């Protein structure tokens, strides 16, 4: 019983730490200096440098979905709706979730490792001595950049997925191209896309807050940096999946 209470207290303490970090980052957005240069730099790291892996993952996600769905629908002579089903799955769920998981693995880990290294080498203490707010300098730009770039990466993932599904449907399953796009236009609504992009924005905040928080609270030298990096990826990935359920229940 004592172990359970200890686990609950630890969980609530960790959750409170994430909320405090997020609130501090939001406050720093509206406090001078605004750190636009830092924000643009993080946008490049999170968005531009992640585009290749997002495109590659998106193409093969759409392709494998089309391959499996098309063969299943062919049993009922309904293969014409394959494109619409793939598009709905990408826009509503797979786009934001897969893009979030890719960014969490690539960028969330890097955030935790970089900030954690700065913590154990006392660089963050040096910033405070120089009257530089570490929240404003290190965390806020990453949170803002993740919030901006993850919906854009999700849009790229969706386009890549549609392209992958088009290749499979038209050239492998021999589905009529006009039917492919017509069914997609009929069944896919703009709300499906926008709700998915809003999910992605939430996931971006989760990735940045978790990664920065775990790095900021790192201790124990190189071993601690490795531990914080692993925890950042695991916690952000699990939180994305949990948050996706509740966001889906609210939106659809």
Structural class determined from secondary elements: mainly alpha
Alpha-carbon Rg, integer: 21 Å
Beta-strand share of residues: under 5%
Number of domains: 1
Q: What would you call the shape?
A: elongated
N-C termini distance: 39 Å
SSE sequence, one letter per element: HHHHHHHHH
- Please work out how many helical segments DSSP would assign: 9
* Main sheet specs: none
Question: Uncertain regions: pLDDT < 50 for 5+ in a row?
Answer: none
**Averaged pLDDT, please?**
91
Helix percent reads over 70%
What is the number of strand segments? 0
Tell me what the structure shows.
The protein has one domain. The relative contact order is 0.17. The protein is elongated, with a radius of gyration of 21 Å. It contains 9 helices and no strands. 87% of the residues lie in helices and 0% in strands. The protein is mainly alpha-helical.
Give short descriptive properties of this protein.
252 residues, mainly alpha, 9 helices, 0% strand
How do the helices and strands line up, and which of them pair or pack?
Elements: H1 2-29, H2 36-48, H3 51-74, H4 82-120, H5 123-129, H6 134-172, H7 177-187, H8 190-216, H9 221-251
Helix pairs in contact: 1-6, 1-8, 2-6, 3-4, 3-6, 4-6, 4-7, 4-8, 4-9, 6-8, 8-9
């Amino acid at each position: 019983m004592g172990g359970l209470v200890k686990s609950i207290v630890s969980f609530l303490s960790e959750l409170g730490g994430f909320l405090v970090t997020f609130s501090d980052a939001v406050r720093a957005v509206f406090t001078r200096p605004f750190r636009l240069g830092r924000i643009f730099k993080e946008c490049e790291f999170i968005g531009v440098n992640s585009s290749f892996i997002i495109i590659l993952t998106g193409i093969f996600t759409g392709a494998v979905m089309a391959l499996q769905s098309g063969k299943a629908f062919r049993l009922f002579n309904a293969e014409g709706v394959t494109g619409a089903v793939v598009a709905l799955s990408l826009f509503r769920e797979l786009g934001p979730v897969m893009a979030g998981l890719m960014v969490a693995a690539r960028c969330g880990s890097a955030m935790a490792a970089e900030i954690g290294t700065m913590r154990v080498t006392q660089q963050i203490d040096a910033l405070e001595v120089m009257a530089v707010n570490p929240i404003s300098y290190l965390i806020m730009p990453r949170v803002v950049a993740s919030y901006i770039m993850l919906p854009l990466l999700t849009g790229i993932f969706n386009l890549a997925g549609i392209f992958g599904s088009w290749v499979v449907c038209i050239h492998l399953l021999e589905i009529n191209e006009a039917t492919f796009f017509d069914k997609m236009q009929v069944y896919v609504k703009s709300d499906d896309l926008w709700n998915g992009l809003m999910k992605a924005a939430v996931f971006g905040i989760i990735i940045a807050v978790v990664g920065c928080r775990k790095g900021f609270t790192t201790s124990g030298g190189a071993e601690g940096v490795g531990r914080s990096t692993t925890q950042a990826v695991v916690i952000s990935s699990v939180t994305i999946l949990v948050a996706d359920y509740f966001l889906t229940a609210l939106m659809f």
